[in-house]
Specification:
Layout: H1 2-9, H2 30-47, H3 53-69, H4 89-135, H5 138-150, H6 161-181, H7 189-198, H8 205-227, H9 235-250, H10 260-269, H11 271-276, H12 290-306, H13 313-328, H14 333-354, H15 368-385, H16 410-419, E1 424-427, H17 432-438, H18 456-466, H19 472-478, E2 481-486, H20 492-500, E3 504-509, E4 514-518
Parallel strand pairs: 1-2
Antiparallel strand pairs: 2-4, 3-4
Helix pairs in contact: 2-4, 2-5, 2-15, 3-4, 3-17, 4-5, 4-6, 4-14, 5-14, 6-7, 6-8, 7-9, 8-9, 8-13, 12-13, 12-14, 13-14, 18-19
Length: 520
């Protein structure tokens, strides 16, 4: 990045000196400010977001357990419906679970949000650098950066998958840089990155996809050269194949070894996960991200077709592979944006260069340096004000000041722990994650967002009880439930029945939760 900026500013009028000169700011164009503004908005947005409860808190509890015991759990210890049953995800996410809990233990939710903002912003900073290297046009870079952001913003919640976006961006950048510089030191990034990835999140096959596409491109180019009778070295093919092989082999350096394939197969074939979890479902025209994704596919295809630059195997294979991934699962849409942004930048720049040149004089205002300094100062101030530690001082009302979302049952679980009602708890599924964090070991949950852990019969029982279908009271008796921790919005039928029933007594209520106890 420093070399890129230095080459940009090294002109006859302005050379970057050892001591910063105000004339440097004179060379910052409005389109460069667009890019800086976009990155600042990303940083600000993530810092000013809130932690949603569904996945975050149970991952924190696992990290706490690993550091406390020195071992990765292999069976469920948080629910009474699946207690003692094997759960593969503990070993899949262990590194990020420890990472999240470690930062939380140092600085609480504020530091977690700040770290998340650095991870997400760094991801798109890397994508921005790739777009700039591919186009050498700041306007094209800004557009392609926005393209990637629009397709990824839905996935920026605080949970282990965030690190996979940064690792994926680093893989893309490393491949791009190596192909232009042939610096062998860059290649060490890929297997090391894969070692982190395979111990942090189940999306690590995406890294292997990127390396496979790189190898496929080198092999195709060598094949074409040989078919045309052109003598060419096979070095690039061999190097890309070696990196792919080493990275695939390193995937075995995880707590389950070859058994990690079991996790991927189980997640891909689990009907509960594949058919009910929105982010695992294929995008549709009615889903929030669906229309944007379908439009982006069409737009990218048109750009590749009309581009005067010949589409390479790498670009075409990337488009096909990540379009297929996005069509298979909504989780893949973010990857389409990350992979295609620099490819779009290259081809949009070629299209721009093919258009008739416009005689446009770039008149620089004599006070442009001061204007740029002012705008950069505003961006810096925005980034600083957005930091989570300053949120309580922002003059706004409502739940915005809170670092966690409104559906996190912090006060109700505090009440539960202080009053200690006897017996098992039936809880709203979404509340289960925070209960795992805040109510262990006193109370185990009925169900929680670890969707793949619970078999279909448990989810059927959960629905029977929550919807008060025939036999719901018998189900509660069967599970020996004596306390209900309910979400009055998601479980309206059950809360209404509990209020009307003489068998249940309302003992706590707030905007998020209602708690009932057996009256007998």
């Amino acid at each position: 990045m420093i070399n890129t900026l230095r080459s940009y500013f090294n002109t006859s009028q302005a050379i970057i000196p050892a001591k910063i000169n105000i004339t440097v700011f004179h060379r910052i164009t409005p389109r460069m400010l667009w890019v800086l503004g976009i990155l600042t908005v990303i940083f600000t947005y993530v810092n000013m977001s809130q932690i949603s409860p569904n996945d975050f808190w149970w991952h924190m509890a696992v990290g706490r357990e690993i550091l406390a015991t020195g071992q990765i759990p292999t069976v469920d210890i948080y629910s009474y419906t699946m207690a003692g049953q094997p759960y593969l995800s503990y070993q899949m996410f262990w590194l990020m679970d420890v990472w999240l809990y470690w930062w939380y233990s140092i600085g609480g939710a504020e530091l977690i949000l700040f770290i998340q903002s650095l991870v997400i912003t760094s991801t798109y900073l890397v994508i921005m650098l790739m777009c700039w290297r591919s186009s050498r046009k700041w306007g094209v870079t800004a557009f392609c950066l926005l393209f990637s952001i629009v397709l990824g913003v839905y996935a920026w919640s605080v949970r282990p998958q965030a690190i996979s976006f940064l690792l994926g961006a680093i893989f893309l950048y490393t491949i791009q840089r190596y192909r232009s510089t042939s610096n062998p030191l860059l290649l060490a990034v890929l297997p090391v990155g894969m070692l982190v990835w395979v111990n942090s999140h189940g999306s690590f096959p995406v890294g292997l996809m990127l390396l496979s596409i790189w190898f496929g491109d080198e092999f195709w180019q060598a094949f074409l050269a040989r078919w045309r009778g052109v003598h060419t070295s096979q070095k690039k093919v061999m190097i890309s194949a070696l990196v792919l092989f080493l990275s695939a082999a390193i995937c075995l350096l995880n707590p389950r070894g070859f058994g990690i394939a079991t996790y991927l197969i189980s997640m891909g074939s689990n009907p509960t996960v594949q058919n009910t979890v929105p982010e695992w479902l294929p995008p549709s025209i009615t889903s929030p991200i669906g229309p944007l994704f379908f439009t982006s596919i069409l737009f990218t295809a048109v750009v590749l077709v009309i581009s005067p630059r010949k589409v390479t195997f790498y670009q075409l294979a990337g488009f096909v592979a990540f379009t297929a991934l996005g069509l298979w699962t909504t989780r893949g849409v973010v990857w389409f944006g990350l992979v295609m942004a620099p490819i779009l930048a290259s081809n949009l720049a070629a299209i721009s260069d093919s258009l008739p040149a416009r005689n446009k004089q770039n008149k620089l205002h004599p006070r442009r340096s001061l204007l740029n300094i002012g705008l950069l100062s505003l961006l810096l101030a925005l980034a600083l004000v957005s930091l989570p530690w300053f949120r309580s001082s922002i003059p706004v009302r409502g739940d915005y000041r809170s670092l966690v979302t409104r559906d996190t049952p912090t006060e109700s679980i505090k009440f539960l722990m202080e009053n200690q009602p006897e017996g098992r708890v039936f809880n709203d599924m979404a509340f289960g994650s925070y209960m795992i964090w805040a109510a262990q070991p006193d109370y185990q949950v009925f169900a929680d967002p670890r969707i793949e852990l619970f078999p279909e019969e448990i989810w059927n029982d959960y629905q029977v009880i929550s919807r008060t279908a025939p036999g719901w009271e018998d189900k509660l008796d069967q599970y020996e439930v004596r306390t209900l921790v309910l979400n009055p919005e998601a479980q309206a039928a059950l809360t209404e029945k509990a209020v009307q029933s003489r068998g249940w007594q309302l003992v706590y209520q707030d905007q998020t939760t209602q708690i009932f106890q057996r009256a007998d």
